[in-house]
Amino acid sequence: MPGDEIGAAVTEVRADVATLPRWTLGETDVLVPGLPAATGEADYYFSSVSQARWLSDGRILVVDVGADELRLFSAAGAYEESYGGTGAGPHEFSWIRSVTIGEQDTVFAYDVPTRSMKVFHPDAGFVRVQKVSDPEGTVGAPEVWRLSPGKLLHAVSMPRRDADMRAAFETLDAGQVSRLDEVVHLTVMTTEGAVEGRMTFPGMYSGLVGAVGSVLAPFSHRPVIHADRDGVIFSSGERFEITEADADLTLRRRIRWSLGGAPVPDEEVEFVRAAIDDRGFERIMAEGMLADVLLPAERPEIQRILVDAGGRYWVSRFEPALPHYYETLWYVLGSDGQPVALLELPPGNRVRIEAVGHSRALVVRRDELDVDNVEVVRIVTPEAALSS
């Protein structure tokens, strides 16, 4: 296996997408209803689901970021308990940014405003709170994951230089457009704040528009990070390149797949054009700034990365941050980095996959009333179809 410029092994994917088996999602096995309404009626609801995870015994943990709560359900979807709630107390949340499942299903939930890791156990409830110091030189709203006992991963996206930030806001004050490129700073640190490893990689870019409003490029690539006890997986999302690192950020492997790139579709361009027009920035359009500043030359390629129960990577194709855009294509990679299948979903499916088991997926489905529902659904493969 060849290596790259810094010594990491490189897996080059040569597969033809057209030849890969097609999978999809099938019937719902379990419906997770939410939380009984305060009235005591049979109505169930979630406020806004940001994450959902399986525990080792099959129970389901749902992060309701709108309610600042962690909600626990049985494997059959029956409500068991809620943890957290809105506030700044030791067991409360203001913004649950990231959640890690540790040993014995201990839950580590990072709360951004209080810069603290709130620790819960599904059977014992609240365990403790651990303050988390931002590494020197970093600013912004970080994500923090628990890697192993006493070790955390801190990630934050920042402008390349302070001068870039100052220049961007000078153009904001002048009512003009500025493109702000960012870099993701990864830091492995102990719970006492000692730094054990650092790394940076390209982050997203933003299109900033005027002092009376802004238009973030909905097709800007976003940094993708997956962290757990086995290490860290990350990508800028701009191209199909995935980097694996150990828990100390020592690089293990890069997976690269040349998919050819694609231009930004006209409908996405028109969405941004309409958003700018709605804010009264006709001059920006007249001066031709849209293509120069807000549009990338090619559409980004990666949206998210999940790791399933068998250690396979599920990599979703980039979809823009536009109304009614949901992921429609997932590349499934084996442990050798080579693709084994594609999972396809119909356009407008309104489904977000949160976790993948051996034959089922844990998903958030948004209904016609824009209410989030959590479901366990079957993964339909050609083999499953033949055996049924």
β-strand number: 27
Structural class: mainly beta
Gyration radius (Cα, Å) is 22 Å
Question: Per DSSP, what share of the residues sits in E-state strands of 2 or more residues?
Answer: over 45%
Helix content: 10-25%
Indicate how many domains the architecture comprises.
Answer: 3
Largest sheet, order of strands side by side?
Answer: 21-22-23-24-2-27-26-25
Q: Would you kindly provide a brief summary of this structure?
A:
The chain has helices at 162-173, 266-278, 282-286, 289-294, 382-387; strands at 9-13, 22-32, 35-36, 44-45, 49-54, 60-64, 69-73, 79-84, 96-101, 107-111, 116-121, 125-131, 143-148, 151-159, 177-190, 195-209, 224-228, 231-235, 241-245, 251-257, 302-307, 313-317, 329-333, 339-344, 351-356, 360-366, 372-380. It has 388 residues and is mainly beta. The chain has 3 domains: 15-32 and 303-388, no CATH class; 46-130, Thrombin, subunit H, CATH 2.40.10; 132-300, no CATH class.
What report would you give on this structure?
The protein is mainly β and 388 residues long. The protein is built from 5 helices and 27 strands. The protein has helices at 162-173, 266-278, 282-286, 289-294, 382-387; strands at 9-13, 22-32, 35-36, 44-45, 49-54, 60-64, 69-73, 79-84, 96-101, 107-111, 116-121, 125-131, 143-148, 151-159, 177-190, 195-209, 224-228, 231-235, 241-245, 251-257, 302-307, 313-317, 329-333, 339-344, 351-356, 360-366, 372-380. It has an 8-stranded mixed sheet with strand order 21-22-23-24-2-27-26-25. A 5-stranded mixed sheet has the order 1-20-19-18-17, with no helix packed on it. A hairpin with a 4-residue loop joins β15 and β16 (195-209).
